[in-house]
From TrEMBL:
SUPFAM superfamilies the UniProt entry points to: C-terminal effector domain of the bipartite response regulators (SSF46894), CheY-like (SSF52172)
Native species: Knoellia locipacati
Protein name stated in the entry: DNA-binding response regulator
Keyword Transcription regulation among UniProt keywords: yes
Gene Ontology BP term (one): phosphorelay signal transduction system
Gene3D superfamilies cross-referenced by the UniProt entry: 3.40.50.2300
Length: 214
């Protein structure tokens, strides 16, 4: 059974989505909400396989919810629904770890099929588009996750990528080891990373994370 969570600030839309999905024998709607804050709080506890997220909400966006939830539980697949087809939103969805970015004029059967596919581990994002956006990120477009880090946190990320232990980072930055540990936890969570080795791979691909570029 595929467990699905619905996020949309329009009740009629949520009701329509629920009715569309609940007739499917292999899909169960385990929860729904109208706000980003409520969804971010409830989804990790309900542990759906797929979250269907409205891109634009009064208190945020489904893309933010996707990033925040996946930083806690990366096994939850995100499908972003939007009325607007633009590269900026697609770029943000990709960086948030979304498995799909769909326009709201999609047919019901296509949405059901998309949910099944991402629940099975597929990604619906066009590889050519993703490659083009990743090429942009390597040049003049900064990963939006980095903008969420303070200059101190970016230095911490850089030192993690260099393989320094918490004690070594503390000595380098004149910080207590416990303080460094707290920074490391915060940095990995904001970046949606689970392990220090992932931080090293990230910096190797994207270049220096330090605020001064070194």
């Amino acid at each position: 059974m595929i467990r699905v969570y619905l996020l949309d600030d329009h009740e009629v839309v949520r009701r329509g989505l629920r009715e569309l999905l609940e007739v499917e024998e292999d899909i169960e709607v385990v929860g729904e909400s109208a706000s980003a804050a409520e969804a971010t709080r409830r989804i990790p506890a309900l542990r759906p396989h797929v979250m269907v997220l409205d891109a634009r909400l009064p208190d945020g966006s489904g893309i933010d919810v996707c990033r925040d939830v996946r930083s806690v539980d990366p096994t939850v697949a995100g499908l972003v629904l939007t009325s607007f087809d633009d590269d900026e939103a697609l770029r943000a969805a990709v960086m948030a770890g979304a498995a799909g970015y769909l326009l709201k004029d999609i047919r019901g059967t296509q949405l059901v099929d998309s949910i099944r596919r991402v629940a099975a581990g597929e990604t619906l994002l066009d590889e050519g588009v993703v490659a083009r956006l990743r090429k942009q990120w390597g040049h003049d477009v900064e990963d939006p996750r980095l903008s969420e880090l303070s200059p101190q946190e970016r230095r911490i990320l850089q030192h993690i990528a260099e393989g320094l232990t918490n004690r070594q980072i503390g000595e380098t930055m004149s910080l207590a080891e416990k303080t460094v540990k707290n920074y490391v936890t915060s940095v990995l969570a904001k970046m949606g990373l689970e392990r220090r080795t992932q931080a090293a791979v990230y910096v190797a691909k994207h270049g220096s994370a330090a605020p001064d570029g070194r």
